[in-house]
Design a protein that fits this description.
Helix content is about 35%, strand content about 25%. It is of the alpha+beta class. InterPro entries: His_9_proposed, Inositol_monoP_metal-BS, Inositol_monoP_superfamily, Inositol_monophosphatase-like. Pathway: Amino-acid biosynthesis; L-histidine biosynthesis; L-histidine from 5-phospho-alpha-D-ribose 1-diphosphate: step 8/9.
Length: about 270
C-alpha cells in the first residue's frame, strides 16, 4: 500500500466539496433531454459534463488557488505544482446519456505526481467511495475490503466495453477473461468500487485517460487490492491507459503473467499459426 508522503487528511474535505459541486449540476441534467456533442477523440460530452467541471474548478480556485488541475473537459493548469487535482465530472458519459445510474464523479489528488487521495461519487446510487494513501478505503464512511480472491479460475472479472480495446489488446483480455469464473461488461468507474467492496475480483481495461484511473489507485489499494498498468508499473499521468486492478497481489500477478504471455505469443505470430 502506498504510504503518505505528507499529511493528506486536510484535503479530504476539499475532495468532498468538489464532488458536492459536481453533483448539483450532474443530477440536474440526468435523464433530461440533452444535446450530445462529439469531442476530437470521438467520445461524447454534454453540458452537464462541462458545467460540473466548471463548478469543481471554481471550488479549487477559491480554496486551493496554487494547486494544479487536470480535468477532462477544461484542460490542465499548473501541472508542475506540488499538488495537482485530477478531476472527471462525469465518468461514464455514455451511461449518463442513456439513463444508466452507473456513472460517477472522480477526484484524485497527486503529491509530486503520486496519487495520495481518491474519491468516487455515485450520485444516483448515493454512494461515495474514498481512499487515502496508507489508510483503509471507505464507502459512505464505512471501511471496505476487497474479496481476497487469489486464483484466476475463481475470479469475477469486469471491463467496461470491448469497444475500448484495440485488436491486440482485446485478444489479450479475451484470453485472460476466459480463464476466470465469470466475466461481465459495463460499470465504468463503478466496477472498481465493486472490487473495493468485495463483489468483483478483477478489472482490466485499456484506452483510459489519467482522469479515468488516478482516483482509483488509493481506493483499490486501501481496500487491500493492487492496481497498475499491464506491465505492473505504478499508474501516473504518463501511463498508457491500460489498467489491471485485482483483489489481491497474487491474483494481480497471475493476470499480468497471462496478459504478458498472450502478448508475446501474438508478437511471435504463434496464435496465427495455430
Amino acid at each position: 500500500m502506498t504510504t503518505l508522503p505528507t499529511p493528506v487528511s486536510p484535503f479530504l474535505a476539499l475532495a468532498h466539496a468538489l464532488a458536492d459541486a459536481a453533483r448539483v449540476h450532474s443530477l440536474r441534467y440526468f435523464r433530461t433531454p440533452l444535446d450530445v456533442l462529439t469531442k476530437s477523440d470521438e467520445s461524447p460530452v454534454t453540458i452537464a459534463d462541462r458545467e460540473a467541471e466548471a463548478a469543481m474548478r471554481a471550488v479549487l480556485q477559491a480554496q486551493a488557488p496554487m494547486h494544479g488541475i487536470l480535468g477532462e473537459e477544461h484542460g490542465r493548469e499548473r501541472l508542475d505544482a506540488e499538488y495537482v487535482w485530477v478531476i472527471d465530472p462525469i465518468d461514464g458519459t455514455k451511461s449518463f446519456i442513456t439513463g444508466s445510474p452507473l456513472w460517477g464523479t472522480l477526484v484524485a489528488l497527486l503529491h509530486q505526481g503520486q496519487p495520495v487521495l481518491g474519491l468516487m461519487d455515485l450520485p444516483v446510487l448515493g454512494e461515495r467511495w474514498t481512499g487515502m494513501a496508507g489508510q483503509q478505503a471507505q464507502c459512505n464512511g464505512q471501511p471496505v475490503r476487497a474479496s481476497g480472491c487469489e486464483q484466476l479460475t475463481q475470479a469475477r472479472i469486469y471491463t467496461t466495453s470491448p469497444d475500448a480495446f484495440g485488436a491486440a489488446d482485446w485478444q489479450c483480455f479475451d484470453a485472460l477473461s476466459r480463464q476466470c469464473a465469470l466475466r461481465r461488461f459495463g460499470g465504468d468507474c463503478y466496477a472498481y468500487a465493486q472490487l473495493a467492496g468485495g463483489h468483483v475480483d478483477l478489472v482490466v481495461e485499456a484506452g483510459l485517460q489519467p482522469y479515468d484511473y488516478l482516483s482509483l489507485v488509493c481506493l483499490v489499494e486501501g481496500a487491500g487490492g493492487r492496481i497498475t498498468d499491464w506491465q505492473g508499473r505504478a499508474l501516473t499521468v504518463a501511463s498508457d491507459g491500460r489498467v489491471v486492478a485485482a483483489a489481491t497481489p497474487q491474483l494481480h500477478a497471475q493476470a499480468l503473467a497471462l496478459l504478458a504471455d498472450r502478448a508475446k505469443r501474438d508478437e511471435r505470430g504463434e496464435l496465427a499459426k495455430a
